[in-house]
Amino acid sequence: MAPPIVPEPAATTRPITERPIPGRPSVGIAWMCTAAFGSSSMNGMIREASADIHAFEIAFFRNVFGLVALAPMLLKAGLRTTLRTSHPGLHVLRGLLNAVAMLSFFYAVTITPLATVAALGFTAPLFAAVLAIPFLGERPGWRRWVGLLVGFIGALVIIRPGLSDVSFGALMVLLSSLAWAGALIIIKILAKTDTSLTITIFAAVFLTPITGIAALFVWTTPATTTWLLLIGIGAFGSLTQWSIAQAFHEADATVVLPFDFTKLLWASVIGYIVFNEVPDPLALLGGGIILTSVTYVAYRERRRRGT
Predict the structure, then answer these.
(1) Residues with Cβ within 8 Å of residue 109, at least 6 apart in sequence
(2) E strand or H helix at 26, and its extent?
(3) Which residues pair with 164 in a beta bridge?
């Protein structure tokens, strides 16, 4: 799936803790811009590869290459140590949610303008903030509620229900964001006891067979050029995840999140040059509204924690 604004845990053997105090804001901004470029490039490659094979098959190969990339870290840390967990059921649930998020997102990329996909992808943190209320016991104040409301208004600006037909692709992006938000809540719970490498490895272990089963129903042997695209999708996907993790390590979320907006710019450029897509002005406006809301909610969360 599109890289969400909240990153996957970094693939280390240290337990996940609260993000350290910001160090180098300019470096964090640079990493977030890199992540935005990587994400948009990956989405463009997904669209291009979909001319030869189905989106579900692309998702499967994305996970295969991701698992291969994690293998050296798994061997170094030790298989027995890495796979030790006290919450196997949560890992299974997280894997299922991740699979729904990835499959629906990859399919949406193949049928929806890239700028619209990028704009609606910003809703994942909003869904996560809402789900945190019943599942994590968080109690947002009225300011955060206003921020969330504004964010969802931004989503309505993009899909324009009642004024135009709501596209199936847009609904798939929203489904992906909702499923990924659920996965984020589980990650936050697992982070209290499991290492980041354990969480990442279990995700890959479950995602690969689940997306593989989905791919079997639409299987087509990839052409030679498609294999190159699949390798590129894996490379840019890994670059994106790493860059997001580094951005949040170097600077506070309220500093780097506004620069995730460059994802919309890259998506618009790639969509226009490669696929002759004219960016929807309302999609850009709605994406800006959502991202502003996400940044404000992150700011309120920081104030609440007193960091």
Answers:
(1) 2, 43, 46, 47, 50, 55, 117
(2) helix 25-49
(3) 161
User: How confident is residue 272, by pLDDT bands cut at 50, 70 and 90?
Assistant: very high
Average pLDDT over residues 60-70: 88
Radius of gyration (C-alpha) of the chain in whole angstroms: 18
Amino acid, res. 183: A
Burial of 145 (0-12, 13-18, 19+ CB in 10 A): middle
Q: Residue ranges per domain, the chain? A: 25-305
What pLDDT is attached to residue 91? 93
Count of all residues that appear for the chain in the document: 307
Whether the predicted pLDDT of 204 surpasses 80: yes
Listing DSSP states for 228-283 in one string gives HHHHHHHHHHHHHHHHHHHHHHHS-HHHHGGGGGHHHHHHHHHHHHHH-PPPPHHH
Per-residue pLDDT of 164-203, as tens digits, reads 667 899 999 999 999 999 998 998 898 888 887 888 888 8
Is residue 234 within 8 A of residue 242, CB to CB? The reply is no
């968080």: which residue's tokens?
A: 138
Strand partners, 161: 164
